[in-house]
Specification:
The protein is mainly beta. Helix content is 0%, strand content 54%. Strand 5 and strand 6 form a beta hairpin. It starts with a strand and ends with a strand.
Length: 127
């Protein structure tokens, strides 16, 4: 059974940076899609970023418009670790951030398309 464990959340002032990490165990996810979602109080879980593998190419990535040019998603450890570098954080980025994996890969933006989830890590950005 695949397990995802996030780390790196915390409290930061607006304009600051945080780096989230997600380590997968129990399976090889090198060709899987891995992504980050977030959920603020009273709101639905929303897509933040995802990275996926395509034969013959390096990992592709895509982002929600709200984080484009501020956040960077990357893979490590032969694809079993995913990072989210968050720069120029804003108070509206405050949420619980979840790591997710879709075993079969592909480009997907809906939470229901992902098979495995981490427990979440809190990110709080103060103004």
């Amino acid at each position: 059974q695949v397990q995802l464990v996030e780390s790196g959340g915390g409290l930061v002032q607006a304009g600051g940076s945080l780096r989230l990490s997600c380590v997968a165990s129990g399976g090889t996810l090198s060709t899987s899609t891995m992504g980050w979602f977030r959920q603020a109080p009273g709101k639905e879980r929303e897509f933040v970023a995802a990275t996926w593998w395509s034969r013959g190419n390096p990992y592709y990535a895509d982002y929600a418009d709200s984080v484009k040019d501020r956040f960077t998603i990357s893979r490590g450890n032969a694809g079993n670790t995913v990072y989210l570098q968050m720069n120029r954080l804003k108070p509206e980025d405050t949420a619980v951030y979840y790591c997710a994996a879709r075993f079969l890969g592909g480009t997907y933006y809906g939470a229901h398309d992902y098979d495995y989830w981490g427990q979440g890590t809190q990110v709080t950005v103060s103004s």
